[in-house]
Write a structure and sequence with these properties.
Elements: E1 10-13, E2 16-19, H1 29-33, H2 46-64, E3 69-73, H3 75-87, E4 95-99, H4 108-116, E5 121-125, H5 132-146, E6 151-154, H6 159-173
Parallel strand pairs: 3-4, 3-5, 5-6
Antiparallel strand pairs: 1-2
Length: about 170
């Protein structure tokens, strides 16, 4: 967590660490990386996040008969999705958008939970301001556990190219 904090808010404090709340930007990268849950990021609480994912995956699977794909994004991604729906072809039918306040805290535990709950894969749409280091490490760890091709970090700021990437991924699966 000391190395991943983009603001330097985490400092050594003997056998522990101290977090300076005045410096912390709230990105959640430290919580995503922490294997012992010594640092947590509860926006939203993990139980609420998992409950939402379970409802989304279960509802889609029961009506469509197959597994949906999860698209995790923040406000920037929500705007891209709206632009794509209004001026482009929109998201593929099997992609479920899932907006979070901060996506850099969506770690391997959350990614694995989504896969275990029935999503076929997880795509994380990066925003220009997203802290990428923690997400990259966490996606590599998730794929080491769940298998290759299950997690994608999509670094695209054009709505049409975002959709093109999602539609191309759909064709590769089928």
């Amino acid at each position: 967590c000391l190395d991943i904090c983009p603001t330097g808010a985490i400092l050594p404090d003997g056998d522990q660490v101290a977090i300076d709340p005045a410096i912390c930007a709230g990105c959640g990268a430290c919580a995503a990386l922490c294997p012992s849950t010594a640092i947590t990021y509860d926006d939203p609480p993990l139980s609420h996040l998992v409950s939402r994912l379970q409802v989304l995956a279960g509802t889609y699977s029961s009506s469509a008969g197959n597994a949906p794909r999860l698209l995790v994004h923040e406000k920037h991604g929500a705007e891209m999705i709206r632009l794509s729906a209004r001026f482009g072809r929109g998201l593929p039918a099997d992609v479920i958008p899932f907006e979070l306040e901060v996506i850099s805290g969506f770690g391997h535990a959350e990614m694995l939970a989504a896969l275990a709950l029935g999503f076929s894969d997880v795509t994380i749409l990066l925003a220009p301001t997203t802290e990428r280091d923690a997400l990259t490490r966490e996606s590599v760890l998730c794929e080491a556990i769940a298998g290759s091709g299950r997690v994608t970090l999509l670094d695209e700021s054009d709505p049409d190219r975002m959709c093109d990437a999602l539609y191309a991924a759909e064709k590769q699966e089928n």
